[in-house]
Amino acid sequence: MTGGFGPLVTEDGGADDARWIGQPRIIGPSWSRLPAITIGLLGVQLSWSVEMSYASPYLLSLGLSKSWMAIVFIAGPLSGLIVQPLIGVVADYSKSSFGRRRPFIVCATLICSFALLLLGFTRHVAALFTSWRSHSNDVLTIWLAVFAIYCIDFSINAVQAVDRALLVDTLPTSDQPGGNAWAARMLAVGSVAGFYIGNIDLTRIFPILGDEELEVLTALAAILLLATQAITCFCTKERVLVSSPSKRKNFFAELKEIWETIFTLPQTIKSICVIQFCAWCGWFPYMFYTTTYIGELHKQAHPVPLSDEVAVAALNAEATRLGTRAMFYSALVSLAANAVLPMLIKERKTSGRYGSPPPRRSWLDRFKVHLASLWAFSHLLFAVCMAATLFTSSVAGATFIMSLVGFSWACTQWAPFALLAEAILAHPGADDAEDDDEAPSALQQHPHPHQHLDKDDVSGHDSDEDGDGDGDGNAEARRLMGAHERGRQDGPAGTGLMRNVSARESGFDLHEGGDVEDGVSRSRQGNNPQGLSAKAGVIIGIHNISLVIPQFLVTGLSSIIFALFDSGNDVHGHSTHHFVNGTDTDVGAGGGDDLARLAVRALTARQEGEETTATEGPNAVAIIFRLGGVAAAVGFVLAWRLARELKRTGS
Prior knowledge:
This protein has helices at residues 30-61, 66-72, 75-92, 102-120, 122-127, 135-170, 176-197, 202-205, 213-235, 251-262, 267-301, 309-340, 371-387, 395-426, 474-481, 501-504, 536-565, 592-608, 620-649, and strands at residues 17-21, 25-26, 236-237, 240-243, 514-517, 520-524. It is mainly α. The chain has a single domain (17-347, 367-426, 537-649), classed as MFS general substrate transporter like domains (Growth Hormone, Chain: A). Helix 1 (30-61) packs antiparallel against helix 9 (213-235) and helix 10 crosses helix 17 (536-565). The radius of gyration is 26 Å and the shape is globular.
């Protein structure tokens, strides 16, 4: 499960038995099953995109200082650290008749939708208790906006964690690569959609949803989140936990287990976590401050007098739109990279896989690289892009730089998780009765995940035999893996993943390792883990912590930098009413006349010596970006060393 704090099933059972009713399945034709179970992540990413592109400029427009804004965004890492383990522990022991995951999806989705609407209509909600645009109304609006952001972060983390856990619970091990590939596609499409709709005038297309851009955008995000999660919940049928005699672990027991596991991890997994720590020192600022960075450059180039509230509102609207456009271009690059890069990953060398001769090399094989090498290059590219902020002061140049970062973001979304899963699955268990044959790469076991979707096994029923090799040993394997696992056989000399006992016990496949009796399945939860696969969830939790801790550090550092370099340079006045108002102050595409008027006002203000929106001194956001680039450069060195080690060992 996401976050990895739940109990895992191992092959060696103990006295404790968990009893289940039914079998997990996905309804609908075979071609629609993986899209149906992953479409919820599209709504999740769309909501994230709205927050990332609009939350920071909106808070600034309310009059919140940048240093306080940085503290507000600690909600992201805080929710990741708290919500994922808690939702995992609670959901794993849920005995709801609707399943363990879907009730939490419904509740968290409703909370997130409410929070999105609150973020878009904070001024109107505050006006219910205070006078319109009074000082008390301004203060309450800020507090409601901060409250909405915290609710969004906490609830969307819960939705995402349970969505991914549902994917793990429902799909067999053989379909996990395909499911994760579809999850990556949905996330990429959600990013593109979220940033694209921020570039168009939504108030003219959907006037019924609100008078301002942010109001319409949050309303659309809430509607799409509800719709996508409804599709996932309707199309997915879970098995129901009837009884679980095992003692339920509390949150502190889980933390203790994580702490003890940290010191016993293999070097490869430790390296992945350290690299992720360095990388996310740079990713966190990029995710939340890119819109602000682009907007600041635009305001520097087109200053207007602060006394002209209409001009300031128009400038803020255009600045936010330009920042969102940069994120949209980055999302497009990421989507394209997600489609192309998996084809450029070199397969692990194995001998006699499935008893067939090695395939002939194609022209594409010349360009294939090891996954870890590609991941290392993505860190280098990110570091170079962050360093390039030293040499650009234009919106066009900064947009180009942030667009290139989309390539690195595509690698970050799947490369470390694939390497981590591969390291867990390939690690031999203590009781591995098989020989030392290498297991194929978890990425490359199904180079084209969609090829086996015509089978009925995705629905949770037994599939027919594939007919590869003899059937020795597979009846026992299918019994151990329950009704979910495919019936693929390996010959005596085969090196398939299913011949690895520790791979069969993978904690990613939580429904395996049980028997089925009269419609009630029984999973044995032993107390003697065999290899890393039995601790897969804990390892994922440790990996999640390596992503969260740097976000706390960067948040504190950002607050200090903003306080030092941006004191007195925050947005003045109260332009909230005009924030990205597509009707009155929109200066987006086709707004040449508005830009011309802004330019005339800027020249007049300079001649008369008026105070303008232009800021003096270094760009604080750019400084944070460069520090993140330094951390990414360290991550590149460590990732390159990891790639060399993995290639040396043939991993």
